[in-house]
Design a protein that fits this description.
Distance between the termini: 6 Å
Number of strands: 13
Strand order of the largest sheet: 5-4-6-3-1-13
Oligomer: single chain
Radius of gyration: 22 Å
Order of helices and strands: HEEEEEHEHHHEEEHHHHHEEHEE
Shape: globular
Strand content: 15-25%
Number of helices: 11
């Protein structure tokens, strides 16, 4: 129990336990920077913190995921980034930007953190941690921060303090998470709509390749450049500010303007945006069969047109798609490792994990990880956690 660990490390009881979820993007991959829509949701896998306020300006942090690092301590008077402070730089970044706006933050706290998001899985452990610390400060000091403001603050910490040039989707999906609801989000305007996700007879099974995503960053930059180049060329004939505004028939009519790679990247962006809108409609109509087919089409497009899958993700997804009780499956996240997801009927989940796991092990040579994901709430107080 986190509570017992807190008592052991800090020799006192924690006052409160908080939880911040991870997230998955159901569909809408690699199109947020092309003017497209994303369709994420928060999940019941995430990050917990047992916390007690202090009477001074010291923050002491201990992670059950990195116990070898011991207690890492910093002062609210010294919030510069420091590599040796490791994962607690996320807490320092949150504190730094919050204190700029809310100088009443004048006390530190002791906290023990435990996350059950697999490392390197692409389920957004860093955004989960950012929103966790925002929730702690918000609650301890009764700060009037809205969910959208919290998401933007988390992104600012990621971009300006940690130095990772990420978009808004992860923090937004976590901060605004609602049980059994996905978020249809325009990452450029932050216009969004909650879409009920009713799946009483099926579950989302997350399949982790257990491969670190070494290629993802370099290929991400390459794909963005190809998309930008395609848009610039198409704008000589079509009035559009983003790729996803362009109709598929207009792309086809002007494909001679593009290289083969530019055409394929643009086709993925345009068709994936159509699939994302169709997925929202499928949930509104309670049509999971349709949604499953859209998942399969999304993966095929990410494999053939965007070329960001790789043998590990393809092996998992193609094995999943063949199993009984599977409505659909696709990679999720940046690609070249990380995770995929499948919609699986409840009665078939045990067989599904066994058969897909065996096929993956036989072909790839090491095991995949499997997690059942429920769609849950955003950051909140909880009573306790059993490990």
């Amino acid at each position: 129990m986190l509570r017992e660990c807190f008592k052991k490390i800090f020799n006192k009881e924690p006052a409160v336990i908080y939880f911040s979820p991870g997230r998955i993007n159901l569909i809408g991959e690699h199109i947020d920077y092309n003017g497209g829509l994303v369709f994420p949701c928060s999940i019941t896998i995430g990050t917990y913190a047992a916390t007690a306020k202090r009477d001074d300006k010291i923050v002491r942090c201990y992670s059950k995921n990195f116990e070898e690092l011991g207690v890492i301590e910093f002062s609210l008077d010294n919030l510069g980034y420091d590599k040796k402070d490791n994962w607690t730089n996320y807490a320092k970044g949150v504190a730094k930007f919050l204190i700029e706006k809310y100088p009443q933050i004048d006390k530190g706290f002791d906290t023990i953190v435990y996350g059950n998001i697999p490392n390197g899985s692409g389920l957004s452990s860093s955004a989960s941690l950012e929103l966790l610390f925002i929730q702690i400060f918000k609650d301890l000091f009764d700060l009037p921060i809205t969910e959208v403001e919290a998401a933007l603050l988390g992104k600012r910490v990621e971009n300006e303090y940690i130095g990772v040039n990420s978009g808004i989707m992860d923090q937004f999906a976590i901060s605004l998470g609602k049980k059994d609801q996905a978020i249809l989000l325009d990452c450029n305007t932050l216009d969004f709509e909650y879409i009920p996700v009713c799946m009483p007879d099926t579950k989302i099974v997350i399949m982790n390749t257990n491969k670190r995503r070494e290629l993802a960053d370099s290929k991400y930059n390459e794909r963005r450049a190809e998309c930008d180049s395609a848009l610039a060329k198409l704008q000589s004939k079509i009035i559009a500010t983003t790729l996803c505004e362009i109709a598929l028939e207009d792309l086809e009519a002007n494909k001679d303007l593009l290289t083969d790679n530019e055409y394929k990247r643009a086709r993925h962006a345009i068709t994936e945006n159509i699939r994302t809108k169709s997925s929202a409609e499928a949930f509104k109509d309670n049509d999971l069969i349709k949604f499953g087919k859209l998942l399969n089409s999304s993966h095929q497009s990410l494999k053939d047109d965007y070329e960001v899958t790789g043998i590990e993700l393809d092996t998992l997804v193609e094995a999943a798609q063949r199993q009984e009780g599977v409505l659909g499956a696709r990679m999720t996240g940046a690609g070249f490792g990380g995770c995929s997801l499948a919609i699986v009927k409840n009665d078939n989940i045990e067989d599904f994990i066994e058969k897909v796991g065996k096929e993956y092990l036989d072909k790839i040579g090491y095991e995949a990880g499997f997690y059942i994901a429920e769609i849950g709430e955003g950051p909140t107080k909880v009573k306790d956690i059993a490990e």
